[in-house]
Specification:
The chain is of the alpha+beta class. The chain folds into 2 domains: 1-61 and 304-336, Malate/L-lactate/L-sulpholactate dehydrogenase, four-helix barrel (Hypothetical Oxidoreductase Yiak, Chain: A, domain 1, Orthogonal Bundle); 70-181 and 224-303, Ribosomal Protein S8, Chain: A, domain 1 (2-Layer Sandwich), CATH 3.30.1370. It has helices spanning 8-20, 26-41, 52-61, 89-107, 123-131, 185-194, 214-219, 227-243, 275-278, 283-295, 305-317, 323-331, and strands at residues 4-6, 71-76, 79-83, 109-117, 136-141, 162-168, 171-178, 203-204, 210-211, 221-222, 266-273, 319-321. The chain has a 7-stranded mixed beta sheet with strand order 2-3-4-11-5-6-7, with helices on both faces. A hairpin with a 5-residue loop joins strand 8 and strand 9.
Length: 337
């Protein structure tokens, strides 16, 4: 089978049908399909269609409750606790974003802790959704063990992504999104699926030795960006995402990639701010000035520009799935629809 090119609507329908065929409710399957399709459109392959087989397997075995309905509790005037109830993260995140969108303009600042959660995909998409509501937003998430503490060999933390977004006037939001490993672990998983090697410097094996074998890397640990300083940021995100939400730490959580085991029960933490009152309505103009100082210099670009370009192209031309992945998806229940 050759590589498969399909429109975003076709990919969205394919994902939804496969998940429904693997014990996921219609409403949850639709939200997961939206998230994975947007990731694929943005070129974030490690959080896109490559996740479908593992998501489906986990829903089928019950490691993820495909029928879970998130519960939102307002624990104080400006704080929310969202229980994903062992389900996919996206419905819980969407519920948190909706609630923060209502609370923050009234209070100026609000936060949401998501617990009993799962893989949250592209963190930038969650803060982008809040920025589209006119809010400045921060996102923190933890995950199954992938990074060792600086100087150690045994993994303690996940790759612990963090993201930031700010609204712009008559433009898409500025979005900064990064995994705190040198690359997202999803990229290593994609390389393993394709049978490709990874660059030296991304990961080490179980003995702490550098490796270019993605399968060995997945059994070992990822290296943090920024070395010791990056490792400190990883710890900060672990505290915000997992300790504040009373969720599993990375070393306690089960894998996102297999259907076996208990639910990972990891956490996410979102903060939203209304930039208007605190800046005396000067935020938009000052942000424009700052970004112009960057883009006026030849050779520069703003974070997210490449991603938005890929999204526009995908909306026009569709996306292409590797032949092996396309074959796997077509052979899954629901994949031939």
């Amino acid at each position: 089978m050759n590589d498969l090119t399909m429109s975003l609507s076709e990919l969205r329908a394919l994902i939804r049908n496969i998940l429904v065929g693997h014990n996921t409710s219609d409403v949850n399957a639709a939200q997961v399909a939206d998230a994975l399709t947007l990731a694929e459109a943005d070129g974030q392959k490690g959080h896109g269609a490559s996740r479908i087989p593992s998501y489906a397997a986990q829903s089928l075995t019950g490691k993820v409750d495909g029928h879970a309905e998130p519960m939102v509790e307002q624990v104080s005037e400006a704080a929310l606790r969202v229980d994903a109830c062992s389900g996919f993260a996206y419905p819980a995140l969407n519920a948190a974003i909706e609630a923060l969108g209502q609370l923050t303009p009234r209070l100026g600042i609000a936060a949401a802790a998501i617990t009993n959660s799962h893989h949250s995909g592209v963190a930038g998409h969650q803060v982008e959704a809040l920025a589209n509501k006119g809010l400045v937003a921060l996102s923190f998430g933890n995950g199954p063990v992938a990074i060792a503490p600086w100087g150690g060999k045994k993994g303690v933390f996940g790759t612990n992504p963090l993201a930031f977004a700010a609204p712009q006037t008559n433009k898409p939001p500025l979005v900064i999104d990064m995994s705190l490993s040198k690359v997202a672990r999803g990229k290593v998983n994609v390389a393993a699926q394709k049978g490709e090697m990874i660059p030296k410097g991304w990961a080490v094996d179980q003995d702490g030795n550098p490796t270019t074998d993605p399968k060995t890397a997945l059994d070992g640990t990822m290296l943090p960006m920024g070395d010791a300083k990056g490792a400190q940021l990883v710890l900060m995100v672990e505290i915000l995402a997992a300790a504040l939400s009373a969720s599993q730490f990375g070393y306690e959580a089960s894998s996102f990639f297999t259907g076996e085991g208990e639910p990972p029960h990891i956490g996410q933490f979102l903060i939203a701010l209304d930039p208007g009152p605190i800046s005396a309505n000067g935020f938009a103009g000052r942000l424009d000035d700052l970004l112009r100082a960057i883009t006026d210099q030849p050779g520069t670009r703003l974070p997210g520009q490449r991603r938005m370009g890929l999204r526009v192209a995908a909306e026009r031309d569709g996306v292409t799935l590797p032949a092996g992945l396309a074959k796997t998806l077509r052979e899954m229940p629901g994949g031939s629809h």
